[in-house]
Design a protein that fits this description.
The chain is built from 12 helices and 13 strands. With 317 residues, the protein is of the alpha/beta class. It folds into 2 domains: 199 residues, P-loop containing nucleotide triphosphate hydrolases (Rossmann fold), CATH 3.40.50; 99 residues, Magnesium chelatase subunit I, C-Terminal domain (Helicase, Ruva Protein, domain 3), CATH 1.10.8. A 5-stranded parallel sheet has the order 3-6-9-1-10. Strand 7 and strand 8 form a beta hairpin. Helix 1 crosses helix 3, helix 2 crosses helix 9 and helix 8 packs across helix 9. The longest helix has 19 residues. The radius of gyration is 20 Å and the shape is globular. It binds adenosine-5'-triphosphate (ATP) and magnesium ion. The site of adenosine-5'-triphosphate has 14 residues, from helix 3. Adenosine-5'-triphosphate binds next to helix 3.
C-alpha cells in the first residue's frame, strides 16, 4: 500500500471514531479496543456499572459500521435456539427448514449476557469459537466478519449468571468502562438538550475493513517482542498468587492485537508499548487468583500492572 493510501486509511479510522463520538462522549480507549478486536477477528466483553453507556457505545460502534447488526437482550427466559436458530416445518415443501437466529449477523450485541442461564451463554460462546451453528446434524456457517460485543454488569445481583470461567477465554478483550471524567460528563450534560441520541451513520464498510486486515499482516514484529509477550504470559502462570494464568490463545491474541494497535497508531512495526497497552484487556478475564490472594484484597488489574512493571521491556534498535 502506498504511503498516501495508508494516510487515507488512517483518516478513515479517525472518521469512524468521530462518528461514534457523535453519540458517545469520551471512552476513546474503549472505542480503540473495540476496533482492534474487530480488525483482529476477536470478540469483546464490555463491563461497566449500570448507566455508563455500555449499550449506547456498543450500538453506536455497530451503527458506524456498514455491516449487518443485531441486538439480543439476554433475559432469564431465553433458550439456546433464540440465539442460534430453529428448525421450522415448511408447509409448502413438507420438510423442516433451518430458520437462522440473530447470531447470523456481522455485529452482534449480546446485551447483559449474564442475565441468561449458562446454556444460552454457552450456545453463543460456541458460535464465537466455531463460527458456525450446528442443527439437525448440519452445519451453517456464520457470516464473516462475525463480531460479538457482550455487555455485563460487574455488580453481583440476584438472578445473574456469571459467565463460565473456562469459556471467557473465548473473548479476546475484556474492556472495563470507568466513570467519565468530570469534564466529559459536563460535555455530555451540555450536549443533550433532549433524550434524543444523535444519529450515527455508517462510515466503514467490509471492503475497508478487509483492507485494514491486509495491512495488519504487513506489520513487522521482532523476535524480541514475541519474547516480551511470552515473558508476560509466563509471569501470569508462575505467580504464586495465581490459580490459573493466561492461555496460549491469550499470547496469540496479544500478538495479533499488538499488530493492529501498531497499525492504528500509524507504525509499520510493533513496539513493546503496543503489547503493554493491549495486555490488560487480554489478561484481566483469563487470570484466576487464588482465594487467599483475593481475601487479601488483591485485584486482577493490580496484579497485571505489577507484572507489567516487573517484566523487562525490550529495547528495539
Ligand atoms: N459517556 C456518555 N456519552 C453519552 N451519553 C451517555 C454517556 N454516559 C451515559 N450516557 C447517557 O446515559 C444513557 C444510559 O446509557 P446506557 O443505557 O447505554 O447504559 P448501560 O451501561 O447500558 O446501562 P445498563 O447497565 O443499565 O444497561 C445513555 O443512553 C446516554 O443517554
Ligand atoms: Mg445496557
Amino acid at each position: 500500500m502506498a504511503a498516501s493510501d495508508r494516510t487515507l486509511m488512517l483518516q478513515k479510522i479517525e472518521e469512524f471514531k468521530k462518528e461514534v463520538h457523535k453519540a458517545v462522549v469520551g471512552y476513546d480507549d474503549i472505542i480503540d479496543g473495540l476496533l482492534i478486536a474487530l480488525v483482529s477477528g476477536g470478540h469483546v466483553l464490555l463491563e461497566g456499572v449500570p448507566g455508563i453507556a455500555k449499550t449506547l457505545l456498543a450500538k453506536s460502534f455497530a451503527q458506524a459500521l456498514s455491516l449487518k447488526f443485531s441486538r439480543v437482550q439476554f433475559t432469564p427466559d431465553l433458550v439456546p435456539s433464540d440465539i442460534t436458530g430453529t428448525s421450522v416445518f415448511d408447509q409448502k415443501r413438507g420438510e423442516f427448514r433451518f430458520k437462522e437466529g440473530p447470531v447470523f449477523t456481522n455485529v452482534l450485541l449480546a446485551d447483559e449476557i449474564n442475565r441468561s442461564p449458562p446454556k444460552v451463554q454457552s450456545a453463543l460462546l460456541e458460535c464465537m469459537q466455531e463460527k458456525y451453528v450446528t442443527a439437525d446434524g448440519k452445519s451453517y456457517p456464520l457470516p464473516d466478519p462475525f463480531f460479538v460485543i457482550a455487555t455485563q454488569n460487574p455488580i453481583e445481583m440476584e438472578g445473574v449468571y456469571p459467565l463460565p470461567e473456562a469459556q471467557v477465554d473465548r473473548f479476546m478483550f475484556k474492556l472495563v468502562m470507568k466513570y467519565p471524567s468530570r469534564e466529559e460528563e459536563k460535555i455530555m450534560l451540555s450536549s443533550y438538550v433532549s433524550t434524543d441520541i444523535p444519529a450515527v451513520n455508517p462510515v466503514l464498510d467490509v471492503k475497508q475493513l478487509q483492507t485494514i486486515r491486509e495491512e495488519v499482516r504487513k506489520i513487522t514484529m521482532e523476535s524480541k517482542v514475541f519474547d516480551y509477550i511470552l515473558d508476560i504470559v509466563e509471569a501470569t502462570r508462575k505467580d504464586e498468587r495465581v490459580m490459573l494464568g493466561a492461555s496460549p490463545r491469550a499470547s496469540l491474541q496479544m500478538a495479533l492485537a499488538s499488530r493492529v494497535r501498531a497499525l492504528i497508531k500509524g507504525r509499520n512495526y510493533v513496539s513493546p508499548s503496543d503489547v503493554k497497552s493491549v495486555a490488560p484487556n487480554i489478561l484481566r478475564h483469563r487470570i484466576i487468583l487464588k482465594p487467599e490472594a483475593e481475601l487479601d484484597g488483591l485485584k486482577t488489574d493490580i496484579l497485571i500492572s505489577e507484572l507489567l512493571e516487573k517484566v523487562p521491556v525490550p529495547k528495539l534498535v
